[in-house]
Amino acid sequence: EKIPLQIVANKEEGAKIIATLISDLIKEKTAQGKKTVLGLATGSSPILIYKELIRQHKEEGLSFKNVITFNLDEYYPMHPENKQSYVKFMWENLFDHIDIEPQNVHIPDGTIEIDQIEPYCTQYEEKIKSVGGIDLQLLGIGRSGHIGFNEPGSAINSTTRLVKLDPITIADAAKDFGNKEAVPTKALTMGINTILSAKRIILAAWGKNKSIILKKMLEGPVSTKVPASFLQLHTDVTVFADKDATDEL
Ligand code: GLP
């Protein structure tokens, strides 16, 4: 099955469309007296989406009081106060600027003791299930083919766990950490199964440096070598790409 692809003029336009899909879902669920469970991503790809959601909150009264969030991943080890932590990223780029209840925010904890990681990951999965599962999962894609931090070799039935980062991912993260040596070699991430369990999935791919991996994900075989290709097995995925990202298609 082919993944539906929506090509947008640029990431600004793409971000507006995606943010509006998210806010429409929140409004619809809120009107039904229901919570909206969002799976959220970090990286450069979602930043403008979060900006637009903040704008809709400030200018149009979009409320996040009935929203529960689960982030995909976090470096390990990682302290939340660290400049590169995904906790810091999420608060700075979204949560600090909206009316979400802090107890409704979930981000994998990079300070968990190594011997507590297994039960912690099991709990993360159970928390997602206990609120009815993820309604909409937002994704970026790494040049290694990762979604979340599910690097090549990730199994289709994988769940939240500690993983080793791919050398491509470490090289790409070096700009955030100053140099390659400073990048953590591991991370906590939702699994492929966790992601595929979301009711609806939206993936954003902006820029020329995503064009080769986008082609593999959309046109290549479903393979653990390209974890994002597992999305071909989901029945409600939309990929949003700008013109540059579609250069290889
Ligand atoms: C990061 C994140 C991923 C993200 C990807 C792409 O390392 N763990 O969830 O999708 O890499 O990042 P960017 O959006 O900056 O290209």
Automatic annotation (TrEMBL):
Tell me where on the tree of life, at the top rank, the source sits: Bacteria
- From the Swiss-Prot or TrEMBL record, give the protein name: Glucosamine-6-phosphate deaminase
Can you tell me which residues form the catalytic site?
Answer: D73 (proton acceptor), H146 (proton acceptor), E151 (for ring-opening step)
User: What does the function comment of this entry state?
Assistant: Catalyzes the reversible isomerization-deamination of glucosamine 6-phosphate (GlcN6P) to form fructose 6-phosphate (Fru6P) and ammonium ion.
State the family named in the UniProt similarity comment for this chain: Belongs to the glucosamine/galactosamine-6-phosphate isomerase family. NagB subfamily.
Lineage summary:
Bacteria, Pseudomonadati, Bacteroidota, Bacteroidia, Marinilabiliales
> What part of the entire protein does this chain span?
13 to 261 of 647
Domain Glucosamine/galactosamine-6-phosphate isomerase stretches: 11-235
